[in-house]
Amino acid sequence: MIQTEKFVFITSLSLMSLFFVAILGAGQIMKTELPGCLPDGKLFDEGQVIDLDPHTYQVYCVAKMWAFDPAVIEIPRGSEVDFYLTSVDVVHGLYIENTNVNLMAIPGNIAFAKARFKEPGVYRVMCHEYCGTNHQYMQANIIVK
Ligand code: CUA
């Protein structure tokens, strides 16, 4: 009986040490990053559009009942945009017409998509996940000039 207890104790201790070393190795050697907030560490307090250079943008989009923040995004034709999306309340969706961008906005999670807007015009952004009584009004616009 004592032998069995020793075996179980040593095995669990070895496994815990192995997992601890594996976590350290993943972080230090493989440079694995745990899921976090924004790449720059800022919280999603409000939506924002960051102009990296004249044709490269980062959009931090916050979905909430029942709107997208920012509601209007204006960019020049040919722009490449990185979209980072989250939700502050329930699960929403984000679909940008005439693009491949189709994301889920999940509280506590950040979804990512990249799109290039070659043609000028107004690209409607719609919520495609039923999120409450005003779901059908949850829209935004991307104006490409
Ligand atoms: Cu948000 Cu439907």
Structure write-up:
This protein has 145 residues and is of the alpha+beta class. It is 19% helix and 41% strand. The protein is built from 1 helix and 10 strands; from the N terminus they run αββββββββββ. Strands 1, 2, 3, 5 and 8 form a 5-stranded mixed β-sheet that branches. Strands 4-10-9-6-7 form a 5-stranded mixed β-sheet, with no helix packed on it. A hairpin with a 2-residue loop joins β2 (56-64) and β3 (67-69). The protein starts with a helix and ends with a strand. The model has no long low-confidence stretch (mean pLDDT 89). Residues 63, 66, 92, 127, 129-131, 135, 138 line the site of dinuclear copper ion.
Notable features of this structure?
single chain; about 140 residues; 5-stranded mixed sheet; 1 helix; 10 strands; binds dinuclear copper ion
List the helices and strands and how they pair.
Blueprint: H1 2-28, E1 48-53, E2 56-64, E3 67-69, E4 72-75, E5 79-87, E6 92-96, E7 102-105, E8 111-117, E9 121-126, E10 139-144
Parallel strand pairs: 2-5, 4-10
Antiparallel strand pairs: 1-2, 2-3, 5-8, 6-7, 6-9, 9-10
The structure holds dinuclear copper ion.
Enumerate the spans where pLDDT stays under 50 for 5 or more consecutive residues: none
Bound molecules: dinuclear copper ion
Global Rg:
22 Å
Q: Into which percentage range does the β-strand content fall?
A: 35-45%
**Main sheet: strands, sense, barrel:** 5 strands, mixed
Give the N-terminus to C-terminus distance in angstroms: 78 Å
Q: Which of globular, elongated, flat, extended, rod-shaped describes the shape?
A: elongated
- What pattern of helices and strands is seen along the backbone? HEEEEEEEEEE
Q: Report the mean per-residue pLDDT as an integer.
A: 89
Give the fraction of residues assigned to helices.
10-25%
